[in-house]
Amino acid sequence: MSSISIFFTLFFYFSVLIFITGLSYKIVQYWNTPAPLKIPIAPAPLTKSGVFLRLTKEVFLFATLFKSSKWTWLFGWSFHLALVLLFFRHLVYFWPGEIPLILLKTEPLKYAAYPLIFGLLGLLGRRIFVDRVRYISAPSDYLMLLLIILIGASGMVMTFANNHPNMLLVKNFAEGLITFKWSELPSEVIFLVHIFPVFFLIAIFPISKLLHGPGIFFAPTLNQVDDARKKRHISQWAMQKEKNTKIDLEHN
Amino acid sequence: MSKNSIEKLPTYLAIPPLKKDSMAGKGPFKASIDIQKDLGFPGEKIDNWQQVAINKIAETKSKYRSVQVFLDSCMKCGVCTDKCHYYLGTADPKNMPVARQDLFRSVYRRHFTFAGKYFPKLVGAKEFDEDMLDDWYNYFHQCSQCRRCAVFCPIGIDTAEISMAAREVMNAIGVGQKYPNQILGKINKIGNNLGMPEPALRDTLADLEEEIEEETGVSVKLPLDIKNSEVLMVTPSADFFAEPHIDGLIGYAKVFHQSGVSWTLSSYASEAANFGMFIGNYDVMRQGALRIRKAALDLNVKRVVVGECGHAWRVAYSFWNTLTGLGSGGSDEYSLKLQNQLDSNYPQPQHMIEFTYDLIQRDKLSFDKSKNDHRVVTFHDSCNVARGSNMGDIENGQFILPREVIKAACNNFSDMHKSTIKSATFCCGGGGGLLTDDLIDLRIKGAKPRMHALKQSEQDNGVNTLAAICAICKSQFSKVLPNYDFDPYMIVSVHQLVSDAIILTKDSET
Questions:
Q1: How far is CA B246 from CA A150, B242, B405, B475, in A?
Q2: pLDDT higher than 70, residue B276
Q3: Topology of B33-176 in CATH?
């Protein structure tokens, strides 16, 4: 194997390793950190099914974002939706062995690249031109958008401008990563430009703001049922205080 | 009330362009050594404050999932930036919710994250130095913890949680704010924010009884420390002395009188407000709440009802059960005792609005609505009620019930623009421990979005009365209304409207 193939193969495993361990660490950390007080934010659901509905609407439709800013919703939602569609489009490369029929029919999903780029350019434009958003942006905020734009643009150049790399090599390389039967990368630079930022973003997921993905499920403002009067909600560390307090009920 | 007003004013307050450092400064008065020590905090800024602060951040984020998750999750989408009344009123970029959080987040990143430790510039991580601490003190005291930004955050980040944590960290290094901390000292010693002792309270209540009897010819009582009453009424102490609050208290008394339900105030727990929430300190907040539990036990009441106070109702509704077991489902000795004693047919605690609303629903109260015909009333949803609590245990009950109570007592009611009420309500500008004269400039500017909406209602619908159910809102509005060319007396308690219209029967108390 060429050194470049070895590099990307190692880079992939390195990224996935960080992704899995890092993300597990964060999820366990969030899980183990108590939410000592009931702080659901209005409009707060009064039942568990209400909370389920709320989170579903947030995760799939970005309902609050829609309420907050229509443009940001349009850019953000189309970008995220496109990302999901393109993920399914790419599964076929990694699928080991016989490929399910459904994955062979995903080709039209390639057009999701357009809303992807549209959304990303919109978000970038907002970051650059709206003075408030520019103020709160760190270099990493721009960099992350640029990296995903780079992924999308290089993918589009390959797909829509007839610059396909050797697809057999792509398939063997991608499947090989999953089945540990490593093989050569296609050597086209555009392909390397496509996958490098993908691997990079996988690696930084657990140490960056990409944590908003798991974060939304752990936000007590969104995942708590508004039933504080009916059920006593108390954390372990607060329960300790209860045991340590002796209040003299008779005297005073 | 003309429905077809000729010209609509722009519904949104214009979003101002950034004016950097327009609210830079030293922040509110700092607490003295004595005040700090009373609460168990270091008296003044300690020498190794930086290390202690970092440790305190570590502790806080390990005890509060909200803090840990919110510090990590923000993707800087910026949709909160135009949602804060202090930003809209001051244009200082550090009053944008995300920028306010970033004061905390940049320190968190520098000390607790890989990227912040090794690539601080890249991710905007910063040292916790003197300048940063000054910014913390200044700008975390320009947040009223109203949670409007949280309503609009797509991933549920609540700046109030960060602001409370920041104040907790600052108190831990001896940098505390005078106004809330001094008040907390009084409640711990005497039982209310004013430091009003039992005899003074008893006198005040007696005066009020006289006043009501003179005015109505009916002997309406304001009982104090009466054991075995049905209801313990816990209300903000401002209701005992401040205008317009006191007319609300008279309203509660009249409603209780008509209901025939025996009730009492407590001199030991003569305060519903709990500033422990503002400084993000669980123990201090719990201490305040425990006084109420104790009073409920000592007076052997069946129900606990809370008066008109925004953050008090959030603490009562959302936190009392957690802090004290005043509610249902507790298992420790004291909450079991309390729960056996309290009447489970009613929600515990209950808001005075819920109490009155219930009576109205059951046709137990009669009103002469024409008494309020000189008013065109609008309702200011107080942030802590609107975004941190419920009433009536129905979805959005906290918006419905107060309006229904107002409508039962008044013929003319008109809401302000929908982007400024209910869950999107604008803070009065004085909540969260900022209701102090050393912050008057901020308070006036922060009230601007609410005043703008009120001005529109005045022009479109002839609104001349602003009703609220929060002691802080009432005090704040009384003070800032004139700055926006309004009558300072247009702010009233919802129960003042009830009080003015309720028909009293002479001998309902037997």
A1: 64, 6, 18, 11
A2: yes
A3: Fumarate Reductase Iron-sulfur Protein; Chain B, domain 2 (1.10.1060)
